[in-house]
Amino acid sequence: MNALKHIFKFCLVTLFLASCVQEDDNTDFVDKIAAPSNVSAAVTVTQDNTGLVTLTPLGEGAISFVIDYGDGSGTSNEIEPGDSVEHTYTEGTYEAVITGTGINGLTTTVTQQVVVSFRAPENLVVTIENDAAISKQVNVTATADFATMYDVYFGEAGNDDPVSANNGESVSYVYQEAGTYTIRVVSKSAAIATTEYTEEFEVTAILQPLNAAPTPMSRNAEDVISIYSGAYTNVEGTNYFPDWGQAGQGSGWAEFDLNGDTMLQYINLSYQGIALADGTSVDVSGMEYLHLDVWTAEGINTIETSLINNAGGTVTEAPVVSALTAGEWTSIEIPISDYTDQGLTVTEIFQLKFVGDPWASGTVFIDNIYFYKAPSMVATGLAGTWKLAQEAGALGVGPAVGDIGWWNCDADCVDLRACYYDDTYVFGTDGSFTNNLGSETWTEGWQGGSDSCGAPIAPHDGSNPATYVYNETAGTVTLNGTGAFIGLAKAVNTGELSNPADAPVSVTYNVDFIDANTISVYIEAGAGVFWQYKLVRDGAVVSPVAGTWKLAEEAGALGVGPAVGDTGWWNCDTDCVSARACYYDDTYVFGTDGSFTNNLGSETWTEGWQGGSDSCGTPIAPHDGSNPATYVYDETAGTITLNGTGAFLGLPKAVNGSELSNPSNAPASVVYNMTFIDANTMSVYIEAGAGVFWQYKLVRI
């Protein structure tokens, strides 16, 4: 039978690989599967003083196990998941070594203590606790000297089977009902005798929420009418606890405070009303939905929500019933049409009513009661399709706005992440927002990706509908919709995500327009952690020189002579290029917004006139890129003008009409002549005195 299982497993794996090969010959994905995790073994000892122990290996992602028993007797044969192995020990304490192997051959090895004692367990210590987060769940932990394992009998009628665990590990059990139960713990060694502990324990239900209701989306004021919510401005003067006689039926009410977050609490809910201030009503005919979040422990299966209207002095109402899930927040969205289809006029809503089923038998907590509609914003300068600027530094992180010194995506990074830099962020004129990622984007380990191009991963794949609210005065844009993001998905207002499931329903970014087609965006993802992005409007006309350039690393790319095209006086040959490597890696960045930057790194070529030593050294001001600069490209004249003291192309000493002899004489502006050899190569020259032409060949990177 065991041989048959091995044959079957071999065939199954072979069939799997064969079927995959038909569609895709690349099996690199197998190499990316992680090694097995949570490897351990369940240890069961036979209580007959023989030392016979059963070991059942466990582990996630393992297709086989091997156990070294730790007593010098060797190792087991291969054990398949779900199977066990028996081994007889002499009395003593052993370190068993369990090795789990994955489908790609990666292994994980752990050591586990096995105690074999022919003495009954001694000094038994048992801890029994109600779980803090799961209603009616009890957690038990038992430890004892000489013990190998223990059984727990939880004492609930109809369930006499024990739950077993290794000595010192924990077990859990969820009861059907709260109440007092007899819990018995039997601690076992290899001896026939056992040691027991019994306790009468009160199992409790969690009767109130442990977490706040989901935070509502940011909305324009004209798109929401709030009755009770900390996220919006509520209708003034509302009475949330009018006594319409329900107190006489045993119902009660209070405002419950959960760590500073308040919500309405209706106790033994029969019916409960909310009344707007006298003479006040709201017209919700222009709204699309009524929203409320409801939490109940148990006892209430449904809640009936009625709107009560007072049009023309005639009071009418209509109910809608919604199911509730015990022990968690239920977000209820009721279309206004569910009321109007019943013939209810909704132009003068002055009361709401909630009815519990069963009647007066359970407690509910209610938060975020509001009417809303889809965004009705008008078109703004933000409306359109945007994407990250394809240039070094357009994506980065640092300790302050404008500082991306911790990390930023350089030119090589931009090239590597081409699948990401073509992603677009679409702000609709109707307030809709869409992440368009195509078939591939950059996926990271925290998402389950492999820090490479791959298929987008939900919810950060653009599959969820989303909206945005742009506050021009505050300079912010809020994206509403789980998984909607700008720049990097992991950077949110509360920190950096470690799991896609933790994606918030709303994220707010700071936005600043550099020009009509370029925006600077940042988000503080934790105290003093600023992720920063530069976005350009897709389809906008961009200067052909925009991008990152550097000197071509070839002989003759830098030189000087008496005429354009003649570098006979001096040019940098192959040995010179090698000697000045610290200079040939300098970059000249022409931003899509008209900015210009000399990025020289920690070293560049410094000369005697600067105070350098004609060698690699620390960049010297003002030719170190420290001053802000801009550029103007004149296609007709074939010129590039750099504005900003110390900004330069090629050699800083060559300026219009002269060669500098002191850094302090650097002009505020320098004009270069240029021609495109091709889209990614330009020839640049400057006449630094009559008949003195410094010439450079630059390539786009």
UniProtKB/TrEMBL annotation:
<dbReference type="InterPro" id="IPR008979">
    <property type="entry name" value="Galactose-bd-like_sf"/>
</dbReference>
<dbReference type="InterPro" id="IPR035986">
    <property type="entry name" value="PKD_dom_sf"/>
</dbReference>
<dbReference type="InterPro" id="IPR013783">
    <property type="entry name" value="Ig-like_fold"/>
</dbReference>
<protein>
    <submittedName>
        <fullName>PKD domain-containing protein</fullName>
    </submittedName>
</protein>
